[in-house]
Amino acid sequence: MSTTITAMKPKKSSRIHPKTFLLWVGLASIVMMFAGLTSAYIVRRAQGNWTEYVLPNIFSISTLVVVLSSITMVLCTRAFKKEQFSAYKAFLGITFLLGLLFVSLQWMGWKELNQAGILLNGRDPSGAFLFVIAGAHALHVIGGIVILTIFIYQSFKKKDPVESLLSEMNPNRNLGINLISTYWHFVGILWVYLFFFLQYYR
């Protein structure tokens, strides 16, 4: 009498995971916040007493950097799902470094604007709006960088065989990388919108 052992594959649920739902709620609230900020920017600018400015070229470079980081995040996610963990770690690290570079370039751009007389004070509403909008976005990017730091730590942490097996059997094993990937693409797209809004809205 022979017995055939069939590997049990976890069933995928069609229901949205609570963490995914919470992420989308959070992203929706961020969209509403920046929609409010840009709307207030338009209304205040129409009232006059507004210093016209052009964003320094370094902001264009930071935009290219955030787009590139979104591409490396796609490659990172794809490598994780294909269990190509060396590539996953490499692209994860590159995305992290590009995130740091983006924030650094933003800071340098703000310093250039400050030197050009676009200041964060009550007498210069254009400067105040610019720094609040760009600064709020930078904080969200920094939040993503913190999460990436956790992922990098976990990717290099040694796992025992039992823990690795349980991870492979977990139907939600891709949940974490999907969440951070969605968030990272979101903040990237958000900055592209803000960049063109701040640079070309006249």
Summarize the structure.
The protein has 202 residues and is mainly alpha-helical. It has helices spanning 18-46, 57-81, 85-115, 125-156, 161-169, 175-200.
Question: What does this 3D model show about the protein?
Answer:
The protein is built from six helices and no strands. With 202 residues, the chain is an all-alpha fold. The chain has one domain: Cytochrome c oxidase, subunit III, four-helix bundle (Four Helix Bundle (Hemerythrin (Met), subunit A), Up-down Bundle), CATH 1.20.120.80. The longest helix is centred in the C-terminal third of the chain and has 32 residues, at 125-156. The radius of gyration is 22 Å and the shape is elongated.
Task: Name the descriptors.
202 residues, mainly alpha, Four Helix Bundle (Hemerythrin (Met), subunit A), 6 helices, 0% strand, elongated, disordered N terminus
